[in-house]
């Protein structure tokens, strides 16, 4: 699989201090959060964590991709929501990996149309394109 070049339209910049038990902030000051390991991983769970941030970004990005596809297909996705579940676990090589489940609720279309829209959005979404072939990602219409 070859890397496809892109024409960059925007670059986000964020800096972390103290890794999973510290702080992450964007260069423009719009994001500034405390990060802590979740209780399930022995942390305090007092702040957010990288997996929650990834889930937030992926769900928002996927919702945007769903909007692009819906406009092309002339489908009504008003009232829709996208939920991303990001799991963190050990991989067979001894490191860590991620697993993602994307679920979209699209109330104004039938189930078959909703599933088709979700599958097309998965081909358009930048997060889906970045993770494809690297981690397990499942997509569904709820």
UniProtKB/TrEMBL annotation:
Entry superkingdom: Bacteria
Alphabetized Pfam families for the sequence: OsmC
Residues annotated as signal peptide: none
Protein's name according to its UniProt entry: Organic hydroperoxide resistance protein
PANTHER family in the record: ORGANIC HYDROPEROXIDE RESISTANCE PROTEIN-LIKE
InterPro entries (UniProt xref): KH_dom-like_a/b, OHR, OsmC/Ohr_fam, OsmC/Ohrsf
Family that this chain belongs to: Belongs to the OsmC/Ohr family.
Matches recorded under SUPFAM superfamilies: OsmC-like (SSF82784)
